[in-house]
Amino acid sequence: MRVLVVAATELEVLSLKSQVETQKSKKDSRLKIHDFELLITGVGMVATAFALGKHLANHQYDLVINLGIAGSFDRSIELGEVVEIIEDSFSELGAEDDKNFITIDQMGFGESNFKPSARLYDFGLTHIRQVTAITVNTVHGNESSIKTLTSRIQPQLESMEGAAFFYGCKQVGVPCLQIRAVSNYAEKRNRDAWQIGLAIKNLNSFAAEFLEKVVRNT
Questions:
Q1: What angle do helix axes 196-216 and 14-24 make, rounded to 10 degrees?
Q2: pLDDT < 70: residue spans in the chain
Q3: Structural domains in the chain (count)
Q4: CB 3.0–4.6 Å: which of 28, 91, 127, 165 could bond 66 by disulfide?
Q5: 95 Cα distance to chain centroid
């Protein structure tokens, strides 16, 4: 199976990259992913769409996985928890009509909502929480904007790349899924409360286990 892992920054997948490279060098390793590739796109939906589209135009895969950290609107999700994104949308793509927001779908100009074409349960994994997310250019850190957003839609997570990743994969028809770990809650910016290290650690541990499972079952 040919697998592409897509991340915005190398930091988010550095441990996974190291583990896979180490395992590849071991002849008796359980994790022999000879067709594993890693694509670092840069942060944000524009960078993600460009880098992923350019790459997929010249390469074919059996599965493409988006890994990254995310902020959460849902306080029932613990910091550091790994989740599966089952729906993602461009929450800012549309137009304002005074206090109302018109989505690009309602305007008839495109699509803002996307779902993965592969799921963890396809590989026998059912213990990971399934959540919805939005993709934004500006992450939320203002009580008023958070209240306005959550009164219009009820997202659980936010990232700066997820929906762009789904969009790119949909255009070429490649199976894809998105896995994220929660590093912080959506609130007034409070870096002291963030758990980026824990989120990255848990994300990479899960990804390594998942890739090993994929290899065993193919």
A1: 30
A2: 21-34, 215-218
A3: 1
A4: 165
A5: 25
